[in-house]
């Protein structure tokens, strides 16, 4: 490339652009270095992990990101912080079950074909499942929710099988013994993203039991994200569905 | 009781018998104290745990127990030890898949009504399932074997459901993610004895994954024994079936 | 079956009934899919796991289940939630030590012969033992409670031995080192359901010590449920006792 | 459906076909129940897990499956077993680094567009990476191999970045600290399947270190399979690439 | 030495001095034995671990140490305790992000050449990084802070690479998967002190994931301190930089 | 014995006494079975584990035990419960650092010769050390306290070595890396009771680090009790010292 | 002391002797620094841990120690090494069950009063129990062996209770669930040294189950040594018995 | 830089050189990508991790590296592989205790001032200590070895204290409880690199005990490397000593 620049084949601006694609600029807030070109590179802006951030930090990041993108997500925001942030920012929305704050410049247009199925085993797994669903929708995917269909009453799952089989990717959230992804994985031919939840007690060890079950699933076509990582599961399923659509 | 003896109300022999029911005599082999009255108390003689015993110890215990009982079981006997023990003892039988040595004075008579179902998830779980089945049969129970019906192809399980539902107790052996007992537990109304096997690799941690799954099973009616403990599972199921029959 | 329907041998309603026995209908509350035919299939209605449910969810489930069954249990309900639920529902009962809410259309009739023994090692294990006992009683079993008979003063256990030996199934709850089930298992010839409790400190690791002890119990005839799972233990023991009785 | 059969609207054969799609028949080998309709349902036949199977079992399964499919894979076959199986079966191929036995009735035709990138961190991760690559190819996908590009010399990764970015799915195998998927995940916008390997020593705990790293990866777009599960990773990536192609 | 004393070659005072260098005197506060000669031996006074100490104990230790040294540090002091201690002591300073209390008789003079780089992966790792930086500065070292440069956006790290490479020792704090030290270790030729933080959730296990990653780092030149041990990391880096300077 | 009773050789009362020595009577409080003959058998009355007991239960047990013994100890009583119990009972004493409630009918008379040394590594280990010391004293032993002599400043230990060496048993409490018992064990020839404390953070895992250190101590003459089990350590040391004295 | 030397009050030799009692000389073999004055200080010479040592190292250490002591023990010596060492050294004895090599200049004289009881739960625990017994005897203690009295048949223990109660210290070795020390601890008033063995399988985790049980024992008067550490247990019990005797 | 190239200020070759300093070329062997410019960047060539490599791979790497460097190290090479490699390569040296293969074009010249102390606790830790020492020497550092000075006989350590204190960096290897680094860390003012070894048994868990001890060391100035990672410890210490020297 250097020779091309030297010879004039390539002009300096173009060369800079090519290099900056590899070394994108960041927006420096002191406490954080925002990856503002992330959306350009990957199709989706940086998502804010809200758990350890203060309200002030959240607000500052939203304000800065608004200058560079038309959609912002912050996950793991508890209701108190969300309420305070909404007072400062006004135009953001709080999804209380999913504990997500979103801001959209314009309504999400469902641009991608097909859909993602978000399945969960029990009522207690709902927050994780909703986190996955909201993230997936924010990426422009259609989501079908199939909740409370755990293996202890497996007929509930069979009743929804066609809907699950029709999806391009399937998120399965389960706590306790985490057996649902194995059963689903044996019944569908699409990628399953298993997300263990920390629901349970005793030898559950805060989700370890479900995590190990899912990693050891004997059905193929299952990959696993961290315990309670609804965001990661939804993002991954959304990526698969989006890439199928984008391809055409 | 002492007063009754004093007054002659109770004779010394009878009193001794009552006490010895609580403090049974043992047969002292030096390296082992055989609980020879166990069969009288519990209906089944002491079972020999063969894993750390030498061939000499096994032979000595068989020879001594033959004087007190008409059936003997030794579990976890590897083929080499078994072959040597058979040379010394002649009239014993080796069940190679279950790794059990048995001796019966007379053929086992199926005395108990009903049956136990022994279910396993995969071909690799067979040794543990067979250990359970052989022990259960030695206790005088009829056993139905339903093998290789793991959750990755759940239709295989449904095809055998009536047979499983008809049992008085169900042993379910599974490795990897150990999800099968949860599914079975949701479909039957009889006690399920879940036995995790050490089959798997990586984050399976030699059966820990299956063990945790089974302890966290969301279906009721499931209890768990140690990893690879086919003997314990078979004995437990046999006890339930036997007690139902004995009761009448 | 299809051929039988075609030929008229089997009428459509009967065929439907046979199929619905395999695929029972559910009552969909949005956040939960109630398995309302469970009692018909297994003899006992679905039990509500109250820990992560809100008061509103609990009340809604009670109200719906009342239309389908004549007894309802919710476990792991803390006193605050219980008090609020009782205000809404009126005719329910709270068992504070066991943390269980119950509703019965009519008094429980003791229908099953024999009894279950519920044994615990120390005063601190009482809540778990009571959870087991209440569940067992709700299933129509008679329960004998034998509390605070841990191995550190083993004479306390011997004083109660006849009562324990007379039971058809024995629940043994213990924390700390969890040695009691091993000792009991060596003294009785009925199935023992061991339930480790999270009582202890330091290297107890919230019940792990007792759990491992019980899984490794050297006496046969012992199966284990999850840490603090009084419900599971009581249900399992109740199942064994009930099935014996039902059989006749 | 029953009514339709009754009325003649649906003939019995068609009804059976519909039902058998849900309950596929199996080929019963005694020790195994082969899921012979799996390919019809999911597009790929059942893969044999060779680790605990005997040579006789492997041969019997190959012979039976040949009647139903035109491609067979057995994973985790050690060289000794492979050599013996090849003597019996003749027309099978052994991939020694991947430890996979394959049989194809006709050459694999690359039917799917795009490609999968299989990346590994070190020379020692090659067997796992090759397992992924061979499985992926057997599914009809093109694979690009990028090996020995671990984070300790991160320039090696950057040199291959375009090739990785062009893939539809990226398998990343790494042992030791397992950091490579996080770095790759931050640089590409396609789904990354992270596969921890058991390479390392000491506090590596047979791959646990890499497994935890990958589950905790801070970059989105990463899902994880079991330690050393090259098969699972390759299958998953292949599924994503295949589904994109199939869709059109 | 004794012979030398006897012969008068060595006088008693000198001998005492030599011995006391090995057995330094302590200041006994009852609840604590202050190592008041530590600074003389090692160049830096004993640092107070504030976590389990009461305000009274903290104040008493500060007051006593002031008599023996001209700089005092107390780490892990929460804001409430700090506020109370400041009321009693007046002339101390609280570094709230680092949770450190300091007292200096006179301003710190930067006496050592060169500098230490303190690098952290995310905004949430700041408290640990600041603890390291403040300790390092209190030892008389210059510190360069490079924050929020985690591997998910690795271009942020490359932008700061020259600054990091110029340091004599590099502290790298990271939570989640803890991959940053491996990457840094492959790019610099100076000792890296890796400090895992407890930031993360689920299979992070309070910093275990990052700890294992760092211990298994495949790049050489990395050593690790305890989870969240910013003090230890800063002290260690400070020691390396100080010793280089002192040497001349 | 029965024959002796029959023949009149042994009278019934004497026989009963001999038997009751084996099966002591208990005082049944409903929620607890007090082992009131324990002091007669072992020289020390049952100690109350206060952690999970209510104030009402504590008071009831104190009141009952007062009828049978002249000294009562309750450990792990938090200040709130202690204050309430003192209101009800009046004549009890609370040792706040040790969190022990005691009642003595008459002052403890130091009856045993020799003494026990209670050593601890840091100021934060004081509560555990004090628990050990108070229990030991209540058993009638003299205790020497040697506190804050951890291995980071090993000269502090050497200064107290004669005092430690003179004891008949040595309790050593330490948190963090728990190295002190190894060093002490190499310097004394009396039994060392090592008690790990839960003091520390990060990879300390609530005392696991110190526990493992102590179990792996390379010096002989060291045995270990549970994490934070000051009571157990003090009781054990007291037993050794008492038995030496009693013997004469 | 220095002043006393200076003034002539204390002569140099005496001062040296006093100091060398604190800093004993060692015999340097290059690969090992033998603590040859250990016997003088503690009453028993250094015991050789044979596990990782070569035959050559063992022989060299025996030859050197013979010059300084009249008894030598090497533990954890496997039969092959023992046979080779005996060829070189001639006058040593191998205890094959305990895997200990001993050399005595003259026969052991039983010098200490009283005895130690060594109890074990099962036949498989014999090697560990024998290691304890041999070490204890080598220290000059009388040992009573009570083997195979595990809790699954608790009457075997009661039959030996008087013998156990008469000991000055009780070693209890047990594998599997490790419940025996708790039961023994509740029945005796002498110090119990619990030694977990690695006997068991599955969730035993190589002795972890028994170790945790023993650390959590609810009976007081129990301390624990490392898994399979028969040497440590025997040494500790021997120390207690010896010190009682020495005292007079 | 691009502008400078365009304007001719910087010529293309110079620009390439600057860039290649950031993206060094590699030597591609197919199975490995050798980082041949590593020595230029960091002062020491890439070290070969020999554990999973075949003899053929080792030989190929040695042959290739000889073209680029004048010193090569391969660690973790077992004696069999070493013997075969020496046959092929001739001029390499095997350090059998350290299990390292080295090749030097010319003798190592001790170029760096000062020295590194390598300390180990027991004879069994020698291989790890030697690995550290050999690596350190290969980097051009002088090493002082101080072996078998563990805390069970702490006087052995004090005898060598001056030698340890004189070093610029101290490697301390220890197994079992791993207490030695804490003690050394409290006595010296130079950076200590603690390396846990896997020596021990039972609750040692293959070095976990020592690892945790070292991470929790209460003395400052200690950093830790992976279990048995003598290479990492030696390299780190060598880096510190080298950098001090280089600086002048």
UniProtKB/TrEMBL annotation, chains A, B, C, D, E, F, G, H:
Domain PurE: from-to ranges: 114-246
Do you know which InterPro entries this protein is assigned to? P2CMN_synthase_LarB (IPR039476), PurE_dom (IPR000031)
User: What is the superkingdom listed in this entry's lineage?
Assistant: Bacteria
Return the protein name: Nickel pincer cofactor biosynthesis protein LarB
